[in-house]
Amino acid sequence: MGADTLLQGCKPATEKQLANCPFLTKLCSMIEPERLLFSTDDTTIYHGDDIGKTEATAGTIAIEVTDRQKQPVGAVFYTPNSKAKPIVVDPTGYGAIVIGDTNKANEVLAFDNLDNGIDTYSCLMASDKTIIISPQKTKQCFKKMVQHWSSGSQVIIPMTIDNKGMINLLSGVNARALVTVADMVTMLHANNSYEAILAADDTQLINLKDTTYYPEWRDDKAPQLNTPMVCDDGRFELYHDGLFFVKYDDSDPSNILYKQKMFVCSPIEIIAKTRDTSSATWGRLLQWHDDDSVLHTWSMPLALLQGDAREYRRELASQGLSITTSGKQRNYLDTYIQDYPIHKRALCVDKLGWHEEQYILPNGAIGSDSKELIVYQSANSINSTLAQQGELAQWRDELCRPLAEQSRFVFSIACAFAGQLLALLESDGGGFHLLGSSSMGKSLSLKLAASVWGNPDRYVKTWRSTDNALEGTASEHNDSFLPLDEISECAPKIVGKAVYMLGNGHGKGRSTTTGHNRIAKEWRIIFLSNGEESLQNIMAQAGQKTNAGIEVRVAHIDADAGKGLKTFDSLVLAPTGAAQADKINELSHAYHGVAGIAWLEHITIDKAATTATAKQLVDDFMSQYTELAPQAHRVLNDSLLWLPLVRWQLRQTSQAGKQDKQPQPL
Questions:
Q1: What global pTM score does this model have?
Q2: Chain centroid, CA 174 distance in Å
Q3: Long-range contacts for 579-583 (Cβ within 8 Å, ≥24 apart)?
Q4: Per residue in 455-473, pLDDT tens?
């Protein structure tokens, strides 16, 4: 929203509306009277993080905030005779309250304090001086204002010799610091002229651009990866081989001396500040590489820094970040993550899968070209099993097309694609259990299905875990596919409870340390299990019986295709079943992960159209089975989620075959 629109309802303030406010009266004597405006209405913010927020500006006095081209970019609203903080509306961050002419030949004096700026101008009253004052009480906005104005004018920032923080903040900016022993306003009030202050023996006029040249402590002269962060008596410097805390003697800004450097951790970058839609659960988006050059990304809640900081460091270390063993230097990492001045924002969500029109993955999002970055944030960094190798055409043509008549394998692949359709079709999800004797080929079916999303050896999970661990695994596969190998490895007494939990899509309710209820984990998944025994037999070993609720959540499928070749309907890739299994295993490891990403890219192009097509295909098929019992109807309905997939696959393969005009079925 432009500042012209922001102030269009304002009129020049009358003497009565200024209410004899000493501050406003003094300001009125220094600027054009028409620049003080009376605001009759409240203001709604139409930009940034505060969009939609209403500011109580009715009855206040507004002054334009302008850029160096005299264009209004915002406004500051003052309440006469009030100690309340002024309301600042400046979406640019570089706007300034300007006193004096903006002639480019003028010397510009920059202040971060309005009173100092007014007092300086009242003492100087010089036509060749322009005063600019940052309306926002933040260091970064002041720096941004100085950077903006110094691109077209000579800017001087008055400061005292003990204000090292200001020198460090503005190091590298194309401006000059006027460093004096006493505050310049005090010296002006003591009848010292500006020229006399400049000529004083204890006054320094420092080029701030030169103060970035800190003494070199590295023999290799390596460049820093980002802007250093000043902290206490040193600063953080990030290089290709690590994050270091370096101490300098900067008592003389014109001659800074190197003192000490300390290793903190291997290179880690702060990408963005994260928060949810209600501006809560703030965190930091972190990025680093392990020793194998594998990229890791984690949106870390800042709350982890307020407890036992070892927990978050343990998580970073488990994902390959090398952290110093020195206790004091480890604490520097807390400071760096929390205080690094990053301005980029990201929206964090606490669940993977669908978020409106986007599909959230552990390391990014696929879908709408939203201007805001959306990331998954959790207390633990997920070691994502999503991985890509090979090309989509290779996975489809060399691995899948030869298996088009293998019923068990086609069904397994279809399950791998079905999870993303659950939310679209408003289905609860569920699972299937491939039942058969040992060495039947059941695990191979799971690995082939897993090749849709990643390396089969890493993507396939095991039943050998507690129900608590399985709850976390299910949550990480929300709106997707979860293959679980060998149900006999799960303790019989928890099998029924685990199956019901997976299909029902809800975790256990828990309380926090303060006694409040913690939000239970939720998910929608398609899971594919296998084993030598049925669910009923396994539960019977623990003296339990299955009920209808469990039976509709996991349907049993005979792993034997009935052709005398175990899970195979025919031999198409090798002369024997064992050789064909080896070939499938080899190809699924050579080409994997690319089909799942292509599927997500396809269905997010037009989510509404995908939903409509999927619903129509399922409705058409289900209309053929109108007399089924409720339990059978649910099982059939859930098993048909793969029908939209077939349509998509046929479209993809037909497009690939347009060159030779021959149909290429999956």
A1: 0.61
A2: 33
A3: 581/441, 581/444
A4: 999 999 988 876 677 888 8
